[in-house]
Amino acid sequence: MARHLEATIEAFPIAGSFTISRGSKTQADVIVCTISEDGLSGRGECVPYRRYGETMDSVMAEIMAATKAIEPGLMRDGLQSAMKPGAARNAVDCALWDLEAKRSQRPVATVIGASGREPIVTAFTLSLAEPEAMGADALKNHERPLLKIKLGTEDDESRMRAVRDSAPDARIIVDANEGWTSENIERHLAIAHELKISLIEQPLPVGMDAILSRIERLVPICADESVHSTADLVSLRDRYDAVNIKLDKTGGLTEALLMKAEAERLGFQIMVGCMVGTSLAMAPAVLLAKDTDYADLDGPLLLAQDRPGGLRYEGSLVYPPTPDLWG
């Protein structure tokens, strides 16, 4: 029986709004790819990202153009050359993983060596807001062991101090979303070091980060927008201490596994991150995040309502997916 591919757009309201230095959003727009064969179906979810030149329409078109690429007999490795990295390939790749797991009755966790039902700790993200509001949000979540705060303003010092005052015991990741400059980064690093910030994510714009190789990195620096696939890693070693692996950047779990192995070989700390999506998007990332330094997989916690049968979250702990959800 021939494989059948379909893709649908779904929207999930965010609880309140989610704000970073580039703007705010009130709903998560996702695309779900479903690949069916012999009465079985596999699903994968992606989140198109305008920062990378993606729109809902462009990603839908890429997915539907992949119909020939997912004909029976073509393995996921072939998908690597048939589609470019990005959200579209992520949805197709993860749908193929899910379909293969159902056909073989071997869970993806077993195949990639991530078996076990132990939960991992995920960061919980605080949206960009005024310092007082971010402090209040941190106080509300002060018992969470790992917080991630969105920055990238003219007064990030007040925001960092407000969050640290409200959550004195939490590990904190700062994500500037390319919002700092070569003129202020050393001052911000000194403040972050004073406040015992654990990690700074993508402080400078892509292509404007050469200064990171010349200054003392008082706090480890993590590449996000600067790193998409395995081929990017070698060129980042003089500027970054960690890399953020997101399936919507790598183009799926297949490339993400290769990237994780190479990042480990090169000595990078590893974060597995996400866009704001549902548990279907997080499921393969949760398996990828096993034994990494940081997991930032709180997308469903930011939604007003997740999809049915979603991941199990207990506070900041997230458990591996069940086969009914994915994999």
From TrEMBL:
SMART domains listed in its UniProt record: MR_MLE
Family: Belongs to the mandelate racemase/muconate lactonizing enzyme family.
Location of the active site: 150, 246
Cofactor comment text: Binds 1 Mg(2+) ion per subunit.
Annotated protein name in UniProt: Dipeptide epimerase
Keyword list, A-Z: Isomerase, Magnesium, Metal-binding
CDD domains given in the database record: L-Ala-DL-Glu_epimerase
Annotated GO MF terms: metal ion binding; racemase and epimerase activity, acting on amino acids and derivatives
Cofactor(s) needed: Mg(2+)
InterPro entries: DgoD-like, Dipeptide_epimerase, Enolase-like_C_sf, Enolase-like_N, Enolase_C-like, Mandelate_racemase_C, Mandelate_racemase_N_dom
Domain of life: Bacteria
Record-linked SUPFAM superfamilies: Enolase C-terminal domain-like (SSF51604), Enolase N-terminal domain-like (SSF54826)
The enzyme's E.C. designation: 5.1.1.-
Residues in Mandelate racemase/muconate lactonizing enzyme C-terminal domain copies: 131-222
Residues involved in Mg(2+) binding: 175, 201, 224
NCBIfam families in UniProt: racemase_DgcA
Source species of the chain: Aliirhizobium smilacinae
The protein's enzyme class: isomerase
